[in-house]
Amino acid sequence: MKNYSTNREITEINSQQIFTLEKKIQQAEFTIESVGDYIPGNVLVTDLEKLTTVYMNRSGCNILGHSVEELQEQGPDYFTNFFVPDEINKIIQTYLVMQQKQDRNEIFNFAHRVKLKNDSFYKWYFASAKLMYVPGSHISSKILLIVNEVNSLGYVNQKINSVLEESDWMKKNFKKFCNLSRREKELIPLLVMGKNSQDIAALLSISVLTVNTHRRNIFDKLETKNFATLYKFAVSFGLVI
Q1: Which of 80, 157, 192, 219 is the most buried (most CB within 10 A)?
Q2: Is the pTM of this model over 0.85?
Q3: What does the angle CA 236 – CA 148 – CA 141 come to, to the nearest 5 degrees?
Q4: Could you state, in chain order, the average pLDDT of each consecutive group of 10 residues for the chain (241 residues)?
Q5: Residue range(s) occupied by CATH 1.10.10.10 in the chain
């Protein structure tokens, strides 16, 4: 069994998993309620409008010692009941910035401490968070999280990958996709729609020279020269719906 010992490895693997899970929910392959209990560790959804945990899988509920209904009733107190105040306040602020930006591709990875029921000390957990979009939606106020104890990440990641059935192609190319800038990701749907540089420049209020630079960078970073592969990236990573 492989141990994921570096922060970089842990971040890359968890980013792949939260991206794949949210994408499958967004594309209506399944709902969080239908798959959440099959994913080990703590899987939850936070409503940023109410600052309330609205979903948690069975494993997460067992870890915290509370039912979903009990966690919902706690409302914003959930955050002060289980987490270090200074840490969780910074995390919530990051969530709110993500909600404001509405970037479908942004993933927030972070380590934090959690106090479990009847424990007098905190344990370290690693979390990956992403805005969760329901099918057909363009705006989200909900954060999807996968959270696991740091010491169990190697084993848990193998289990999560098995549940999500990530394709070899997506895992192989995820790092290339992450290397794209936000502007480059904005250009890809326009390119696969057949827009030329002049059209894109007008739509994005940038120069043709800038468009052409972005175009070259996109193909260089994705290590491809053809539009068929570019289209595959666009579809696989949710840049076109």
Answers
A1: 157
A2: no
A3: 55
A4: 60 89 91 88 94 95 93 95 94 98 94 84 92 94 93 66 71 86 94 94 95 96 92 84 60
A5: 169-236
